[in-house]
Write a structure and sequence with these properties.
The complex is a heterodimer of chains A (about 325) and B (about 140).
Chain A (H helix, E strand, L loop, with lengths): L1 E2 L10 H12 L6 H7 L3 E11 L2 E7 L4 H10 L2 E5 L4 H13 L4 E5 L18 E8 L3 E5 L7 E4 H8 L11 E6 L6 H17 L7 H19 L1 H16 L9 H15 L2 H28 L9 H22 L4
Antiparallel strand pairs in A: 1-6, 2-3, 4-9, 5-6, 5-9, 6-7, 7-8
Chain B lengths: L17 E6 L5 E6 L3 H26 L5 H8 L4 H8 L3 H7 L2 H4 L4 H11 L3 H5 L1 H6 L1
Helix pairs in contact in B: 1-2, 3-4
Classes of the chains: A alpha+beta (about 325), B mainly alpha (about 140).
């Protein structure tokens, strides 16, 4: 039986929360928005050719695993990242690492996760949590979605670690093990912001970044005609689910990113970044408003002013605002 | 803090508080722990309504003998043929065939076991759908 002295802190986004908590265990305090920003977690992509839960995929975040690997890489922290094909081997490795005294981050699927809020138990294989100990019959888990620490049995843990389907985690586990003596946090923040800005406005592909938001808006106008009211409203619901669901901390990570910009402005002593943070805050509130009006449509009591055209206009506005914000941020030195 | 959430149809939903960030008019970013708000509830409920509806529809079809029990359990675990093919490790064209009762009846135990594992049920439940799940 092992139990590490791991501090559980609830967080908005699972992966940056896990990253922040893991680093915090090793006496490197990095707030959750900081981890998110340095890891360049903000993103937008709309993939109409890929269907999830019967509707096209809209993503507000980067590929799973990127936040952790980027943050640690930029800060010069050495990490181990493993994937397995054999469940037994993966659990043995987990025990071994725990015995050495490292809390371990795991990528899991949420569908069979027994302690997870039932309304969120859909197929989502990019959830992250930390194992910080083991008793005779169960593992001790710190999941950033939950308010408290939880437990999970051996069988359940194997099941969620080897959840199948799209983006299967394949037992992915990761932990930092070696830290440099000094960090250049300033450069890390600048790199993170540049990367995000590049992702949002610098990719010459129509489905990614602000171009992706515009593309989605254009498609949205056609949904009611193309798909019929019911399906169109379900598709809209899918966009809103990805935007507001657990693990985004609201408005598709825009709030969390604004918090990061605010902190970054203070840390770098550059006031213009704080001004951009204010803009980001307003932008996030606008996204929030979009989801309020959109959800009214999903409830089928849409009055005038909440038609798909109106919502598409709002999205266009969001795209314009974000384009302005990130064009500004690209210039950071 | 009291659960200010409008109640879900399913009583076990909406019992957990999560971390939410927000931005207020004074220009401060804040975080708070609270129940998720109405938009989340509406869109989540919409999704679950659809899943339950699809499962119910599939159940009726199975009982009428139009599709095999695989179609029902597939909806039950919120999968489509593509997802089920990945979860069970059966090629997608075979999954599509096995949804038809004609091919389902000819399935061997080995393939049935694969499906049963993906659905997290016993093989008996797959074979005797009407007795065990149907009514």
């Amino acid at each position: 039986m092992t139990e590490l002295n791991f501090e559980h802190r609830q967080a908005g986004h699972c992966e940056s929360g896990v990253t922040s908590n893991l680093l915090n265990y090793h006496k490197l305090s990095l707030s959750e928005p900081m981890a998110f920003g340095i890891g360049a977690g903000l993103f937008f992509s709309y993939l109409p050719f890929l269907k999830m839960q019967h509707a096209p995929v809209t993503s507000f975040r980067v590929w799973p695993g990127m936040v952790f690997s980027r943050t640690t890489k930029v800060l010069g922290i050495k990490t181990h990242i493993y994937r397995f094909s054999n469940p037994k081997a993966s659990m043995d490795k987990l025990d071994e690492v725990l015995a050495q005294g490292f809390p371990v981050g795991l990528q899991v699927g949420t569908f069979h996760l027994p302690f997870f809020p039932p309304e969120y138990r859909m197929h989502y294989n990019m959830h992250n949590m930390v194992v910080y100990g083991k008793t005779d019959d169960s593992y001790l888990i710190s999941d950033t979605v939950m308010e408290r620490k939880v437990r999970i049995s051996y069988e359940d843990l194997v099941r969620v670690r080897f959840a199948k389907g799209a983006f299967a985690p394949r037992g992915r586990m990761y932990y930092p093990y070696s830290f440099p003596s000094s960090f250049d946090l300033k450069q890390a923040i600048i790199k993170g912001i540049r990367k995000t800005a590049g992702n949002m406005v610098g990719v010459p592909f129509p489905l990614i970044g602000t171009k992706g938001i515009r593309y989605l808006a254009k498609q949205m106008r056609q949904w009611p005609e193309k798909l019929g009211e019911e399906k169109a409203s379900y598709y809209l619901g899918q966009v809103l689910r990805m935007e507001e669901e657990v693990g985004t901390a609201g408005a598709g990570f825009r709030f969390i990113y604004g918090t990061f910009l605010d902190e970054a402005g203070t840390f770098l002593k550059q006031d213009w970044i704080k001004e951009v943070a204010v803009e980001m805050g307003h932008n996030a509130n606008y996204w929030r408003q979009f989801s309020y009006l959109g959800s009214r449509n999903c409830k089928k009591r849409s009055g005038p002013g909440q038609s798909f055209d109106e919502l598409a206009d709002m999205l266009m506005e969001c795209a314009d605002r974000e384009e302005k914000i990130f064009r500004n941020l690209v210039k950071i030195r | 803090m009291e659960n200010s959430n409008p109640v879900y149809k399913d009583k076990s939903y909406g019992q957990y508080r999560e971390m939410l960030y927000s931005y207020d008019e004074n220009g401060n970013f804040e975080k708070s722990v609270s129940y998720h708000g109405e938009p989340d509830r509406v869109v989540l409920e919409q999704a679950w309504d659809l899943f339950n509806e699809r499962a119910e529809e599939a159940k009726q079809k199975v009982l009428a003998g139009k599709v095999s029990p695989i179609a029902y359990y597939m909806e039950k675990i919120l999968a489509d043929p593509m997802g089920l093919s990945m979860m069970a490790g059966v090629p997608i064209w075979k999954v599509k065939l096995h949804i038809k009762p004609f091919f389902f009846k000819r399935l061997n135990d080995k393939t049935l076991a694969k499906y049963a594992e993906a659905f997290n049920i016993s093989m008996e439940q797959l074979k005797n759908f009407e007795q065990l799940t149907g009514k």
